[in-house]
Amino acid sequence: MTVVTEPTNLHGQVTGPGTPRAFIVSVYGAYVRRLGGWLSVSALVDLMAELEVDEPAVRSAISRLKRRGMLEPQRRGPAAGYSLSAGAEQVLRSGDERIFGRRDAKLADGWVLAVFSIPEAERAKRHMLRSRLSWLGFGTTAPGVWIAPAYVEAEARETIERLGLAEYVDLFNAHYLGFASPAGSVNHWWDLAGLAAGYRDFIEATEPVRSAVAATRGVAADRAAFADHVRILTGWRRIRYLDPGLPIELLPAEWPGTKARELFFDLHDLLAEPALRHVDRVDR
Q1: Cα-trace Rg, the chain
Q2: Which string of DSSP letters, residue by residue, matches 139-194?
Q3: 200 and 269: one domain?
Q4: pLDDT tens digits for 189-210?
Q5: DSSP string, 79-106
Q6: What is the C-alpha to C-alpha distance for residues 6 and 4, in angstroms, rounded to an integer?
Q7: Which of 144, 174, 204 is the last residue of a domain?
């Protein structure tokens, strides 16, 4: 089972047909898992309306997530709803470390290489593997040779095995021995300029939220916290899955990812619990 999230911006605007799915993944991952693992359809429709997503889009997104094996229909009394599948639980658990972890790669730890060859007749599998490696933070050194910091190995191994692609892939531990500068090479292996731009966009869209967070309490504040938290979490999840987490000495000076991470955790600490209270209130 594969969870795929699509791009969203942090103002809650729909930037693509899959944006509601990304919001729903955030809602289930951040709150529903903590509230028993089930949410009624009516509650989800109400919650998504606060993110400016209409009911037809919600129901369409639910249908797609059901087909992908992430959500399972389940009635509780008269209420129709959905719970997370076992596969979805596993994917979300593995994603927690990427989204909320603060680990920094060490240059001395080396790298993990994924070397693969998939026949042209199985191009769908090749596309799936490339997509998953990208979302794990791998960069490309040559056709069929992908690289990531060594700490990604366990997650890469689990993902490749879960997708049934292990027969096509060889994994190696490696250390860079020459001859170019590693700091220069990483700019060819990853789109660091694009990633930096993504972090700057995140900062620009999110800083006003931190400035606007008030000390007030109550239903209205919790509702606002929910909308802000889901948008911020969805944007952060996407960019964190694209970031390989390179050693700091290989990154450009004044890397914006550092500021973005501090900003995310500051807001997560402020908004997560009020947002959870709001979801719990809506689902009662």
Answers
A1: 20
A2: EEEETTEEEEEGGGHHHHHHHHHHTT-GGGEEEEEE----SS-HHHHHHHHS-HHH
A3: yes
A4: 999 999 999 999 999 989 888 8
A5: EEEEEE-HHHHHHHHHHHHHHH------
A6: 7
A7: 174
